[in-house]
Amino acid sequence: MSRSRSQASEHKYLTVRAYLADLVASELSVGDAVPSERSLTEKFGVSRMTVRQAVDALVTEGVLERAQGRGTFVAPPRADFEMRLTTFGEEARRRGMEPGTEVLEAGTAPAPASVAESLGRATGDPMHHVVRLRTADGSPMSVEEAWIPVDLAPDLLDDGVPESLYGALRERGLAPTWGEDTITASDATVQEQKLLELRASRAVMRTVRRTFAGDSPLMYSRSSYRGDRYSVFVPLREARPTLVPRSTTADDTPADGGAVTDDAPTDQLAPVPVPARATEGNDR
Questions:
Q1: Which is it for strands 178-187 and 230-233: parallel, antiparallel or unpaired?
Q2: Of 50, 74, 97, 247, which one's alpha carbon is 20 to 30 angstroms from that of 265?
Q3: Taking 80 as the threshold, does the pLDDT of residue 197 lie above it?
């Protein structure tokens, strides 16, 4: 293909893409079907491959979603997962959505080895264990699991699971001050597919967090977010060493595996340069 013909094809792809994006922004609502590939090829006088390229780009961006055997529809808006210390409820309301919670499991359980190590405790130490499904405007968004040492807040679950674990800890003088997040992506488990109502898209974004109050580990959490409803937003700045308040005796080994969300706290003493650190979360 000559360069001029290639440029013409690129221009047509961008024209179709811009038309569909404008249609979504000005006329269509979430769940509405977009024009068929045939109608778009006729409208713009382009090949089906060009139309498919434009649609594929908008699907990748989360503007459209395909339903096998049914067509292509306007996708629900994605929430930007910005790395900062906020709760799920606060972030949902900031985006004009109503947060909701379904408690899947709550009680006291012995700490598994991975959790105990992350919190500087002995395997089997009693922990408050909470698993919740988080929703926004009634749609499932994430599954969150949190572990908190019982001796830090013995009465934490006496009246049921608090709306915000972070808030409940603050009320007990245990304000989260900093945290560490590890973010990965993988296929959803069968249980996650069911809870998050995943159909065509089965990828989830997983976060694992250690939250601190001063130099004391406060909470270990894991969360699984719908990959089709979240994107990660990370502010960047000029490269330079990042100073993080740390205890010279604190265990700096990041937690591994899983996913979770909540406010995060911070170690103190002996600042040392470390890689950029996560600063957002969900309600714990």
A1: unpaired
A2: 97
A3: yes
**H/E element holding 15?**
helix 3-26
Q: How is 211-246 classified by DSSP, letter by letter?
A: EEETTEEEEEEEEEEETTTEEEE-------PEEE--
Token output for 29: 């609502």
CA-based end-to-end distance of the chain: 56
Task: List pLDDT tens digits, range 109-166.
Answer: 999 999 999 999 999 999 999 999 999 888 898 999 999 999 999 999 999 999 899 9
Q: Which residues pair with 179 in a beta bridge?
A: 211
Question: 28, 92, 96: which is closest to 64 by C-alpha?
Answer: 28
Q: What is the pTM of this model?
A: 0.60
Contact 24, 34 (CB under 8 A): yes
154, 156, 160, 163 alpha-carbon torsion, rounded to 10°? -170
Between the CA of residue 61 and those of 45, 155, 246, what are the distances in Å? 25, 45, 38
Section 55-78 average pLDDT: 80
Q: How confident is the model at residue 268, as a pLDDT? A: 29
By C-alpha distance, which of 94, 247, 279, 273 is closest to 183? 279
Do 153 and 171 meet the contact criterion of CB atoms below 8 Å apart? no
Structural tokens at position 262 = 């909540």
Pick the more confident residue, 220 or 280: 220
